[in-house]
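Researcher: Quick sanity check before group meeting.
Model: Go ahead. Protein one:
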Amino acid sequence: MMTGESWIPIDAIFEDATGRKVDVSSIKAIKAADIVLGRDATTKTEFLIFGRGDTSRALDSGDFAGLHVFRVELDQDSEDHQKLVTLVETVKGDHDNLTDSENTEPAVDGW
């Protein structure tokens, strides 16, 4: 079972509307996460932000035990999506978010 199964609204991560000030506990949670997922608040479509390697290994093996997942709900068609990608890249050093045309991975809905 993966830990961290609740969805956090994007507004709970950023302490101001500019996205420059980030909640310290969110930074710690992102650092500890093996996988960071986003979910569109309207469509409930899930998408990968970070952790492509861990996701692929878990899907191949069927072993999801011990994976720490940080889940964020946002409006995917707004600046919030890019704010989350930028935050994850800053904290983790990289991101795995792809545009729809680049995405060849299986959907992660239901995680």
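Researcher: Fine. The other one?
Model: Protein two, sequence then structure:
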Amino acid sequence: MNLTLRAIRFIILLLSGLAAIFLNQKVDGFSGLFGIALTISAALTVIYLFLQFDKPINEKVVMELIADGFSGIVIFTYPQSDDRFFLVVFSFWIVWMGILCLASGLLDKKHEKLMWLYTLLGIMFVVFGFIIMNYTDEMFNSAIYLVGFIMNIYSLFGLYTILLRKSELY
């Protein structure tokens, strides 16, 4: 049950990333879908932490919860949310996830065998977060494909660690 909730979180984010790719260059409706996916992800993480209350809590999972919840709620509550604002919120979220991957790869001894992958993906998420934040109007049509690609990479990596390695992402 413990890793099942975490796997469901990554499946929801994977489905959201696949929806981004198949929206055919339309960022309009994806902002709401992304907000819903992050809010559900935050709720699943809260349930996971509640079920793990008697065990040591991984601080990176709490930081992930904060990023998911904050980004999801900001998408819904900001009064002038448009496509550019969505890209800024997504950039914030993926940079945060990249920093968590980077810290896990470099600082946690349990990820020593996959340090290169954690480090590479962490750097990639941070770089792509800054690339998406600096998109110009001429390149705006490809933004949704890059968002979907990054979400799918993050989700597939999370599912790989949970399903095949039987361990937590962080």
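Researcher: One line on it for the slide.
Model: The radius of gyration is 16 Å.
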